Amino acid sequence: MQLFSYKKEILMSLLVIFIGVFIYAWKGEVDYTLIGLVVTVLGGFLAALKGVLTNMFMVGSLKLHPFDLLYHMSFYASVQMWLFLIFDGSLLKLQRHLVETATPKTYFVLLVNGSFAFLLNIVSFMANKKTSPLAMNIGGISKQVLAIVLGIVIFNTPVTPLSAVGVAVTICGIAWYANANYRYGKTWIWDLTIISWEGKRKSPC
Predict the structure, then answer these.
(1) How confident is the model at residue 4 (pLDDT cuts 50, 70, 90)?
(2) Is the sign of the CA dihedral 197, 59, 5, 3 positive or negative?
(3) 30 pLDDT band (50/70/90 cuts)?
């Protein structure tokens, strides 16, 4: 199994990013449910786990191609999706909606949407293979921050001072992470052999 070891400065930059996201999200929810919190935490954990496992399958001993990985994952993902649709009752609603209102344009839009989702997964797997699960998550946070900033600049989206501080702290953390990752990189630990960022092998003993 392949493990990553990061410098303390990189871990500190991640702490700054976490604090910035926490400040931005600290708006005070009107409604709160325990099931909502559990689902949110579970979703974040499973998303992170997916990134780690897909990287292991593509970079580890298996060295799967993104198409191979998607081929093996698609069956289990479809089973999970159909089970949720059946037990949730959404499958009957979808069938009724398609029978009553669907047009050829509807099926074309579904085909285009599915094609783009397929390509998105391929690109995501390829990027994960070339970088790391952590870099992918930081990239996702950067995308969300960029969307927030563009919304403020282009659409004049109102933002509270606390939210602005959160965005600023997050941007500083991302910049710190990018700089530290460029300077230090990461240490690859493969079985009993340590492989440095430059690719030099050396015995841990």
Answers:
(1) low
(2) negative
(3) low
From CA 8, how far away is CA 12, in angstroms rounded? 6
What mean pLDDT is reported for the chain? 81
Mean pLDDT of 83-109: 87
Strand, coil or helix: 5: strand
Segment 147-157 shows an average pLDDT of 87
Angle at Cα 42 formed by Cα 130 and Cα 181, nearest 5°?
30
Number of CB atoms found within 10 A of residue 167's CB: 20
Closest CA to 74 of 108, 135, 125: 125
More confident residue, 99 or 188: 99
Q: What is the CA radius of gyration of the chain?
A: 21
**Greatest CA separation found in the chain?**
70
Write b or e for each residue in 68-101: b if 16 or more Cβ atoms lie within 10 A of its Cβ, otherwise e. ebbeebeeeeeeeeeeeeeeeeeeeeeeeeeeee
Helices 133-155 & 8-25 angle (0-180, nearest 10): 40
